[in-house]
Q: What sequence folds into this?
């Protein structure tokens, strides 16, 4: 517990999407993502919006299916590729140089305020799924659950206990985790 950083410098306490890497998933049901990724062991790919020049000549309709294996984003396809390439390189470097997987898919974000007078909310991930990313063909990236422990945000748990006296529940075992119930407990 003494090793946990509970300051706002910690991305697990005060998350902001990095400028060049990482991807924010939108419009997905976290319960379904967890089921597909962890319980069923499926890999998932990221889907971006068409680039502007592709959109102009195209009249195809895009439908969103929340039970598919695509993770939707607000990035254009070209920007998404650049972000995923940078994320893939950083994850590979961490594995090769340190032997540690530092890539996680976060499910759920707790929006919190430092005080009652704060106007800007802070965001902190709730459930952390360790994932690996692989380059599939030249332009697609897949993520899959690496099989290790799905985790609680221990830094957030410690910070909420220390600063606010709030006891956030821990996630528990991956096989028995009920994501919807966990979110209800947090709320």
A:
């Amino acid at each position: 517990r003494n090793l946990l950083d509970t300051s706002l410098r910690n991305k697990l306490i005060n998350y902001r999407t990095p400028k060049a890497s990482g991807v924010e998933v939108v419009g997905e049901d976290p319960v379904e993502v967890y089921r597909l990724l962890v319980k069923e062991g499926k890999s998932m790919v990221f889907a971006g919006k068409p680039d502007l020049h592709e959109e102009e000549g195209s009249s195809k309709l895009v439908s969103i299916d929340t039970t598919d294996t695509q993770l939707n984003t607000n990035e254009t396809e070209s920007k998404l590729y650049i972000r995923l390439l940078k994320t893939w390189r950083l994850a590979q470097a961490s594995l090769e140089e340190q032997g540690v997987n530092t890539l996680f898919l976060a499910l759920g974000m707790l929006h919190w305020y430092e005080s009652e007078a704060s106007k800007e909310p802070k965001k902190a991930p709730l459930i952390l799924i360790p994932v690996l990313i692989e380059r599939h063909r030249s332009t697609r990236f897949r993520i899959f659950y690496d099989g290790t422990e799905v985790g609680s945000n221990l830094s957030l748990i410690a910070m909420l206990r220390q600063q606010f006296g709030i006891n956030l529940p821990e996630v528990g075992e991956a096989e028995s985790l009920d994501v919807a119930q966990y979110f209800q407990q947090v709320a």
Remarks:
- Residues 130 and 148 are 7 Å apart (CA to CA).
- The two ends are 24 Å apart (CA to CA).
